[in-house]
Amino acid sequence: FIGDGDGRVSFRCVPSVVNEEYTYQITFADFDGPPQTFDVIPSGGVCAGTVGVTGGGAFDVALVISSGADSRTVLLATGLGFHNGGASWTPAAEKP
What we know:
This protein has strands at 2-3, 8-13, 23-29, 36-40, 47-52, 59-67, 70-83, 86-91. The chain is mainly β. A five-stranded antiparallel beta sheet has the order 4-3-6-7-8, with no helix packed on it. Strands 1-2-5 form a three-stranded antiparallel beta sheet, with no helix packed on it. The two termini are 25 Å apart.
């Protein structure tokens, strides 16, 4: 994650499943409002992009992978915050 100070966030992640049958969305959720969700189109097995988010709190970030009626939400990070041109977050731990 990289923040530019104007509410724009660049991100990059590698989902375990990349296939044309699936759709991908990244969601930023904080306590100041509703979750902000953006469509992501993977390229070369990587989900990446730059989006504009509002709110100044710490975000929980998740990737939603969907295929038809099935979907899976994968938590990527908690406490994503921006300060002094940098970003900090806690990587999500994978459940056993």
